Backbone:
């Protein structure tokens, strides 16, 4: 076993050599800043040639295990309550970021909160905070009392309610500087009449998590895009050999500016603003990191940006793309008070 491990390291080093010979030490490009990220998004929406190459590859996403390994929630595999009943009753964090720091930031929520683990880990490492991750895929990020089973979730509502009850005291004991969360847009209506109840649920959630430490910074990350009708990689696989870039528009999440509906991403962004205001949270608006703004009728959020496949299924983002957002997220965290 040890021999195979050494061989793997040598092989990896061998394949790294060409890159090393082409560039001198220190010449690796830093992660893009906000203007550069927005330019990458714009270039992706303007692209009219064939579908560009990207990572992770479609082949690597051909299995459920591959899809999981390519998304941020996989970084907290060992503390995932969906995989351990013991962690439902006694939640434990996975530690990321600057693990040697005494300053703690908490990330808590569903797998869409887990999407941000890679970027948060890199950003907080630079800011010298360690990140305590409590990600429970399939269990809503908002701490609301569930009374029935979600047919699209493998988590029982009883386990989810129990986890929400138990994790509060665990987070409280960490005395975090900030608590960060976000939630999937779909299944939570974006219709105007439901904005206020949804926002009040965020207030209740942050209130429960900061009962004894009301000065803890509350951070809400803006809702990320999703394609609620199909897996984006599966859709792209139909266009991978095409001589045009039709797959980008066909497979990327769409939104309609100014249209309020229960499935329109634009509605979720309005809902995020109200949620932050009602709950007293700092809102990190992320839409410019994912979507273009060229049309007043319809626009889309490119499935491939800067050589990175953004989505590994319908709504979970790739570690590859999240890694590119570390700088813009770090700046946003500082602006939020870290």
Residues:
């Amino acid at each position: 076993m040890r021999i195979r491990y050494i061989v793997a390291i040598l092989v990896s080093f061998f394949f790294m050599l060409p890159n090393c010979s082409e560039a001198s030490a220190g010449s690796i490009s830093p992660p893009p800043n906000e203007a550069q990220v927005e330019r990458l998004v714009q270039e992706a929406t303007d692209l009219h040639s064939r579908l560009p190459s990207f990572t992770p590859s479609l082949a690597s996403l051909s299995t459920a295990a591959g899809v999981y390994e390519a998304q941020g929630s996989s970084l907290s595999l060992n503390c995932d309550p969906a995989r351990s009943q013991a962690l439902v009753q006694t939640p434990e964090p996975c530690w990321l970021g600057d693990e040697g720091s005494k300053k703690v930031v908490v990330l808590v929520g569903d797998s869409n909160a887990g999407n941000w683990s890679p970027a948060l880990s890199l950003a907080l490492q630079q800011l010298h905070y360690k990140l305590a991750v409590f990600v429970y895929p399939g269990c809503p990020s908002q701490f609301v009392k569930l009374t029935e089973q979600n047919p699209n979730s493998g988590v029982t509502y009883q386990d989810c309610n129990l986890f929400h009850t138990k994790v509060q005291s665990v987070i409280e004991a960490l005395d975090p500087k900030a608590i960060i969360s976000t939630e999937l847009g779909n299944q939570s209506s974006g219709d105007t009449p439901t904005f206020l109840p949804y926002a009040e649920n965020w207030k209740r959630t942050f209130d429960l998590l900061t009962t004894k430490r009301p000065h803890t910074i509350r951070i809400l990350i803006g809702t990320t895009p999703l394609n609620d009708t199909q897996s984006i990689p599966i859709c792209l696989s139909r266009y991978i050999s095409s001589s045009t870039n039709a797959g980008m528009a066909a497979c990327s999440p769409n939104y309609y500016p100014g249209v309020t509906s229960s499935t329109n991403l634009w509605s979720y962004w309005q809902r995020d603003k109200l949620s932050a205001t009602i709950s007293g949270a700092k809102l990190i608006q992320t839409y410019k990191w994912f979507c273009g703004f060229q049309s007043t009728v319809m626009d889309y959020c490119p499935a491939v940006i800067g050589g990175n496949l953004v989505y590994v299924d319908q709504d979970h983002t790739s570690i590859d793309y999240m890694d590119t957002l570390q700088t813009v997220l770090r700046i946003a965290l500082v602006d939020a008070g870290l």
